Amino acid sequence: MALIDKYATPKARLMVILRGLSPAELRLVLRFAEFLARE
Asked: Whole-angstrom Cα distance, residue 27 to residue 13?
């Protein structure tokens, strides 16, 4: 159950998603995040 609780937090879920992305997709996500941060 602890494993499920660990993945229940939004940040943990985000890390799992990011780990599953390819480097090209990761760069696109990072560029989008930078764009949002600048707005």
From this structure: 19
